């Protein structure tokens, strides 16, 4: 019997593994939320496949996505990152990552955890959609609009509504597996 997955995940083994093991699975720990915020913000304007291929390089370059360390990166570290061919060398996105690490910690101080903050936008419940085709999966929703607007108000960067919706899908706040997908 063939395994039926969401069509987008059939590009290669990397995509299949990501789809099967991570995408749409509920995340509650702040470290994973931050990792996906970094990856999603770098993905803006690029393909997710490009980011997944470079994920391990990002992990190494950004100190295992340790937001406490990243929040204190110096200009020397920025220059080191700019010379790292293993990641996306975009100064604005690198600076945004440092900024977002600082804002991330502010949210933690206010809410106790980033997880509590972000899950509040969906009342702590996974939104389960039942799309039949990829065309039925939205790029943004009213919730991603509201979350993006709130993140921007808090000073986060490179987290527009489309990026935020992708983040919600990646971290399982939204389940957009197609109805015929075995992982729905």
TrEMBL record:
Q: Which InterPro entries match?
A: Adenine_glyco, DNA-3mA_glycosylase, DNA_glycosylase, Tag
**Can you say what this protein is called?**
DNA-3-methyladenine glycosylase I
SUPFAM superfamilies linked: DNA-glycosylase (SSF48150)
Tell me the PANTHER family matching this sequence: DNA-3-METHYLADENINE GLYCOSYLASE 1, DNA-3-METHYLADENINE GLYCOSYLASE I
The record lists the organism as Kaistella gelatinilytica
Can you tell which superkingdom this protein's organism belongs to? Answer: Bacteria
């Amino acid at each position: 019997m063939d395994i039926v997955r969401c069509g987008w995940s059939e590009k290669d083994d990397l995509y299949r593994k990501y789809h099967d093991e991570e995408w749409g699975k509920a995340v509650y720990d702040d470290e994973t939320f931050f990792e996906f915020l970094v990856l999603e913000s770098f993905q803006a304007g690029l393909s997710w496949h490009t980011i997944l291929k470079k994920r391990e390089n990002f992990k190494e370059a950004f100190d295992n996505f340790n937001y406490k360390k990243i929040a204190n990166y110096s200009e020397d570290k920025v220059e080191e990152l700019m010379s790292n061919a293993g990641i996306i060398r975009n100064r604005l996105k690198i600076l945004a990552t440092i900024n977002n690490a600082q804002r991330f910690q502010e949210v933690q101080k206010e809410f106790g955890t980033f997880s509590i903050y972000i899950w509040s936008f969906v009342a702590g419940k996974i939104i389960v959609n039942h799309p039949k085709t990829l065309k039925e999966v939205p790029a943004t929703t009213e919730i991603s609009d509201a979350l993006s607007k709130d993140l921007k108000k808090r000073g986060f960067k490179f987290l527009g509504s489309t990026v935020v919706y992708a983040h919600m899908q990646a971290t399982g706040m939204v389940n957009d597996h197609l109805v015929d997908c075995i992982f729905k």
